[in-house]
Design goal:
Low-confidence stretches: none
Order of helices and strands: HEEEEEEEEEEEE
Helix content: 10-25%
Number of strands: 12
Largest sheet: 8 strands, antiparallel
Radius of gyration: 19 Å
Strand content: 25-35%
Shape: elongated
Mean pLDDT: 90
Length: 190
């Protein structure tokens, strides 16, 4: 009889764990260097599931799945603009900057000064301009010169139903160049 009660309790515990990891928190690994220096290859992240994440805003880091890009492999990017906002990427005084609704973004999180990249969508004389569609976000990697993001046609805008969740924290850091793990990076991601 005690074995039956134990199995009964284990089934409920496993069901609760599954519900938490399906509807509340997800774990994903970072693959690639497009979010340096914020996130590194091999980092494991806890996501607030899209079911409960609420409204996305500028600066949120998300994980999305875009079927038109690398067979739907998840991508990790930073939200730059939300529906109805206009993104303009242009060069001024030999510096390329991102503007949202005419305001230049202060981006201390980017890895290095941005360059126009050959695989990005066409840039006109006024740079690249796009108004974000309804129920979509425009995303970019923090490592702008080495990031496939909303600037390329195979990704473009991310529909909200393609977002898997919002990154909450690093739960396990990837390896540094010397093979060590910087546990000081554990915790909330901004």
């Amino acid at each position: 009889l005690d074995l039956y009660a134990l199995l009964h309790d284990l089934v409920y515990i496993l069901a609760a764990i599954v519900l938490v990891f399906v509807f509340c928190v997800r774990l994903v690994g970072v693959n690639g260097e497009s979010m340096l220096p914020t996130l590194r290859h091999g980092d494991y992240l806890a996501l607030q599931s899209n079911v409960i994440m609420g409204e996305l805003k500028y600066g949120d880091i998300i994980v999305a799945r875009k079927l038109s890009f690398e067979d739907g492999e998840p991508i990790v990017k930073r939200v730059i603009a939300t529906e109805g906002q206009t993104v303009n990427i242009r060069e001024e005084n030999s510096v390329i900057s991102v503007y949202v609704d005419g305001v230049k973004l202060d981006e201390p999180y980017i890895n290095e000064p941005m360059q126009f990249i050959s695989y990005a969508q066409d840039y006109g004389p006024e740079g690249y301009t796009l108004t974000v569609d309804e129920n979509c976000v425009f995303v970019m990697g923090d490592n702008r010169n080495h990031s496939s993001d909303s600037r390329i046609a195979s990704i473009g805008e991310i529909k909200l139903d393609q977002v898997l969740g919002k990154v909450l924290l690093i739960v396990f850091p990837g390896r540094e160049a010397d093979g060590s793990r910087d546990t000081g990076r554990l915790g909330v991601v901004s």
